């Protein structure tokens, strides 16, 4: 009876198995790389706006506090965007005729609000409340990064679920005293201070990872 398989098939079979394993591993690694790449997360990619607003100029250069424009950040789930009146408080006096501010002047004249493009846009199935994070000592910089260094606003973090859970698992590393929440500077992690803040705010971190905290 003639031989059905040649001798080289003894080598070809295991080599094929190894090749398939390598190909699958490469595909999984490639998908992971894409999912966490700036292409998918949009981290570090400035978002085009109707007016090229510079946080770097207003926050770092002029020293304007976050709450001056984002008035709802301490009391509501949404941080809020400034009304045209807020912009015109200054720009009715300075840079009055700057071409880039024409949309602001038109909004002021017509009463139609400016339409800003969202930088951070969570899915509808995620519940997030700015006020509770601010009240409990999470600094703006923890989620939004160094906005005082951004000529144009861009995402600093992925906002993926795993990123949120990293903080919810160990909030004591990220918490700040109330007078440092709006300060645009890095802080050295102080777990003892953070643990004291947890106790003072009566935060039980064992419940922070419950699904119902963010998914309601």
From TrEMBL:
Bilayer-spanning residue ranges: 12-36
Keywords: Membrane, Transmembrane, Transmembrane helix
Keyword Membrane: yes
Keyword Transmembrane helix: yes
Protein's UniProt name: Chaperone protein HtpG
């Amino acid at each position: 009876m003639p031989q059905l398989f040649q001798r080289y098939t003894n080598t070809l079979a295991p080599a094929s198995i190894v090749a398939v394993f390598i190909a699958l591993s490469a595909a999984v690694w490639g998908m992971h790389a894409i999912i966490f790449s700036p292409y998918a997360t949009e981290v570090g990619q400035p978002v085009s706006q109707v007016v090229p607003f510079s946080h770097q100029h207003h926050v770092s250069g002029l020293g304007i506090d976050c709450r001056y424009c984002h008035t709802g950040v301490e009391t509501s789930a949404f941080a809020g965007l400034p009304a045209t009146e807020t912009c015109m408080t200054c720009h009715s006096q300075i840079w009055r005729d700057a071409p880039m501010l024409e949309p602001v002047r038109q909004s002021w004249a017509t009463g139609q609000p400016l339409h800003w493009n969202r930088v951070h846009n969570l899915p509808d199935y995620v519940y997030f409340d700015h006020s509770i994070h601010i009240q409990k000592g999470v600094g703006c910089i923890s989620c939004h990064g160094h906005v005082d260094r951004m000529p144009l606003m861009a995402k600093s973090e992925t906002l993926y679920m795993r990123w949120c859970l990293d903080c919810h698992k160990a909030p004591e590393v990220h918490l700040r005293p109330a007078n440092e929440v709006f300060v645009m500077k890095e802080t050295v992690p102080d777990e003892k201070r953070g643990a004291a803040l947890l106790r003072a705010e009566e935060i039980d971190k064992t419940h922070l990872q419950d699904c119902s905290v963010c998914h309601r």
